[in-house]
Amino acid sequence: MTMTLPSILTEVDELVRAEIRAALDRVDERTRLTAGYQLGYWDADGTPTARGGGKGLRPALVLLSARAAGSTVRAGLPGAAAVELVHNFSLLHDDVIDGDAERRHRPTAWAAFGVGPAILAGDALLSLAGEVLVEAAELDGASGLRHLHAATRRLIAGQAADIAFESRTEVTLDECLAMAADKTAALLSCSATLGAVLCGAPPGLVDGLAAYGERLGLAFQLVDDLLGIWGEPAVTGKPVLSDLRARKKSVPVVRALTAGGPASEQLAELYAGDGELGAAELNLAAALIEETGARDWTEKQADRLLTEALAELDRLTELAPAGTTGLAEVHGELVAIARFMTGRDH
Length: 346
Known about the structure:
- The chain is mainly α.
- The protein contains 16 helices and 2 strands.
- It has a single domain, classed as Orthogonal Bundle (Farnesyl Diphosphate Synthase).
- Helix content is about 75%, strand content about 0%.
- The longest helix has 28 residues.
C-alpha cells in the first residue's frame, strides 16, 4: 500500500531516531549533549524536545531504496541512520564555517555550546555513521560504507569550493553548478541508493536511483538558493536575504553576475564592496538579481531537473524485470518526496 508523504516521514522519524539515539549512547557525555541538540532530540540543557531536527527526507530515501530493491524498510535502517548522521555532521561544520547563529528557529550548536564542541560533535557523528554501517548484520555494510564515503568526499569538495568562491571575484556558472552538485546532490544521490546497495541490488537499479537522486539533489539546492534570498524567515528559520548578507556566490547570484549588462555590473559592485550590506543594499541586490533574469532562470532549471529525476524513475519502473514489484511499490513515494523537496517554502 502506498503511504502518503506525512506518513513516510513520521515512520522514518520514529525508526531512525531510535537507531541514532542508540548510536549516540556510545559518545562521551559532553559531545553527546551537543550532537543530540543538533539533531533536535533535546534542548541545550538536555531537556527532551519533540521538535525533532530536519524533515527526514534523506533517511526516507534510503528506506525507500531498500524497498525498491525488494527488501524491507528495516533492512535500510542502518543506511538511513548513517546518512542522517553525515548530513548533520556537515551542518554542524557548515554553521561554524559560515558563522550562522540560527538554524531551525533556534541557536546553532556552536552558538549554544561553542565552536570547539560543535566541531567535535560533527566529527563524532561522522565516525558513528561509519560504525553503524559496518556493524549492520546480514547486509553489505562494506559496499555501503564505500558508497557513503565517496559521497562524503564529494560533499567536502563542494564545501571547499564554496569557501574558495568567497575570496574570488569571478566564478563561472559551470563552477557554481558543480559546487552545488557536490555539496548537496552527492549525499542525496547516495541516500536514494544506499538502501539498495546494502541489500545487494543489481547495478542497473542502483545507477538509475543514483541518477534520480543526483538530479533531485541539484534541483533541491537550486530551490534552497532561491530561499536563501527570497525565503520568509518565519518559515526558513534564517534571517531575511541571508545569502546576500553573507555575499554567498549561490547559483542565482552567479547567474546574475555573469549575465552581463547594467544590473549585473551594479550587483558586482555591491558584492565587491567592503563592510556589511545594509537593508537598502540587500533589497537592491535582490532586485538586481531578478532584473538580470537569474531568479526565473534558476526556477526553470530546478523544474527541468525535477522533470528529469521523475523521468528516470519512470524509466526504471518500466524496465523492471517481470515479477519484481519493489520499485513499482515505492514509485509514488519517491515522486511525492521529489515534488515536496522542490516545491517547498522552508
